[in-house]
From TrEMBL:
UniProt name for this protein: Putative ABC transport system ATP-binding protein
Domain ABC transporter: 1-221
SUPFAM superfamilies referenced in this protein's UniProt entry, alphabetically: P-loop containing nucleoside triphosphate hydrolases
Keywords from the UniProt entry: ATP-binding, Nucleotide-binding, Transport
Source organism per UniProt: Amycolatopsis thermoflava
InterPro entries xref list: AAA+_ATPase, ABC_transporter-like_ATP-bd, ABC_transporter-like_CS, ABC_transpr_LolD-like, MacB-like_ATP-bd, P-loop_NTPase
Keyword Acetylation: no
GO cellular component: plasma membrane
């Protein structure tokens, strides 16, 4: 996918001031920058959560920015996956039910969705915890459930916003390793917004944003 000339304003504040960015198939890309630089706005615009005030977003030749809210919501459910800092799991549901939720909302049969959920939970080291609720899991385990949920419908792109921000260093590294390996196996691109310098340095490509503009790009294309 790609963004060209992306502009996003909140009142008089300019969060994105003409950003060009490409996310290549199967790549892991880190987006870094100081607080208020525009990196989270970029993630939300690329993911169709927010509509840009200017510019265009292309996914497989389709203009994401021109889609209606209903179509963008459908796109987020079918083509994208999301991992947030706090996991955003549904407390009343078991791990396997949380993971199966996107497929169920997309119309999949429960048996198919639960089967896919169990497969991904097993691949992410959570076999035996399928029936556990979020409150019964450690922080790292809960994030792995969130990763499984993001991957179970095999999206084209996963957007991760500070996915290790609530974890200790070792757990954060293990969790990110699990995300990157699983995404690579699925051929899914990953866009990670992070303050973690070590995490960003471990990825093949890093984009730095300052004052709503791309200040630097480091790394090689896949």
């Amino acid at each position: 996918m790609s963004g060209r000339g992306l502009v996003k304003r909140y009142g008089e504040q300019v969060a994105l001031a003409g950003v060009d960015v490409d996310v290549h198939a199967g790549e892991a890309l880190a987006v870094v920058g100081p607080s208020g630089s525009g990196k989270t706005s970029l993630l939300h615009v690329l993911a169709g959560i927010l509509r840009p005030d200017g510019g265009e977003i292309l996914l497989d030749g389709r203009r994401v920015d021109q889609l209606s809210e209903t179509k963008r919501s459908e796109l987020r459910r079918t083509e994208f996956g999301f991992v947030f800092q706090q996991g955003m799991l549904v407390a009343e549901l078991s791990a396997e039910e949380n993971v199966a939720l996107p497929m169920l909302l997309g119309g999949a049969k429960r048996r198919e969705a639960i089967g896919a959920a169990r497969e991904w939970l097993g691949r992410l080291g959570l076999r035996g915890r399928e029936g556990s609720r979020p409150g019964e899991l450690s922080g790292g385990q809960a994030q792995r459930v969130a990763i499984a949920r993001a991957l179970t419908h095999r999206p084209k792109v996963i957007f991760a916003d500070e996915p290790t921000g609530a974890l200790d260093t070792r757990t954060g590294k293990d969790t990110m390793d699990a995300l990157l390996v699983a995404a690579s196996d699925a051929g899914t691109s990953v866009v990670i917004v992070t303050h973690d310098v070590e995490l960003a340095a471990s990825l093949p490509r890093t984009v730095t944003i300052r004052d709503g503009r791309i200040a630097e790009q480091v790394g090689v294309l896949p």
